[in-house]
Design goal:
Elements: H1 7-40, E1 43-44, H2 47-56, H3 67-74, H4 80-93, H5 99-124, H6 132-135, H7 142-147, E2 158-159, H8 162-165, H9 170-208
Helix pairs in contact: 1-2, 1-3, 1-4, 1-9, 2-5, 5-9
Length: 218
């Protein structure tokens, strides 16, 4: 048979892993693009963006790295979280996945994405994206928005304030709300995949347990 035969539980795990992959890749693409444009404006990206990308790509951000190196490498390096999701499904498909270890890692990722969802969503819950153009300047891009964040942003290395930056353009607002929504979705997905792996471990353990021989009555 093609793939493991775990019934509806296995199918649920497969669907959840696919959704996790799509959500992680989407978050990586949006946040990496924001960071690239902000760095292009000679500004320092908000720590919220850097923290979000470091959760899904923990190998990208080290203190000694320059922001130019950060943006040059973000598009070509494999992110550990995405790699984990892909590899664990491959191992599952070949019946070689250590279910308890996968449960533990999913739990750690769940904690990480909960922190991301809370941090990213703090100002976004008060922002009304359709009304941003009526109260703020109509900047054409994240680049121009970063240049107008404050009087010191014309200096190299000036840091962009996240709470003010998310309300500069409608595009920025909508995309960050998408990141927020995907982070909340990942919380649910990683919690569900952790439950699935526990259930799969219990099922596998029950199948592998030796059965007691039946007694034959005389």
């Amino acid at each position: 048979m093609f793939g493991p035969n775990h019934g509806a539980l296995g199918l649920s795990f497969t669907v959840v892993r696919a959704l996790e992959f799509v959500s992680l890749v989407s978050i990586i693409g949006i946040t990496a693009n924001f960071i690239s444009e902000i760095v292009g404006a000679n500004a320092v990206p908000p720590s919220v963006l850097v923290g979000t990308l470091s959760v899904v790509c923990p190998d990208l951000f080290l203190p000694e790295r320059s922001f130019q190196a950060l943006t040059d490498n973000s598009g070509i390096k494999m992110c550990i979280s995405v790699l984990y999701v892909v590899l664990t499904y491959i191992l599952y498909h070949d019946n070689n996945l250590p279910f308890l270890l996968s449960t533990a890692v999913d739990g750690l990722l769940l904690i990480a994405v909960v922190v991301v969802a809370v941090t990213v969503g703090k100002p976004l819950s008060y922002v009304n994206c359709p009304k941003i153009g009526d109260r703020t300047g109509n900047f054409s891009s994240v680049y121009h928005a970063a240049l107008n964040m404050g009087q010191n942003l014309n200096k190299v290395g000036a840091k962009v304030d996240y709470f003010g930056w998310v309300g500069t353009t409608k595009s920025t607002c909508y995309q960050m709300k998408a990141v927020w929504g995907l982070s909340i979705a990942l919380c649910i997905l990683f919690a569900f995949s952790a439950i699935c792996t526990v259930c799969l471990w219990r099922r596998t353990k029950a199948k592998d347990a030796p059965t007691a021989p039946k007694s034959v009555e005389a």
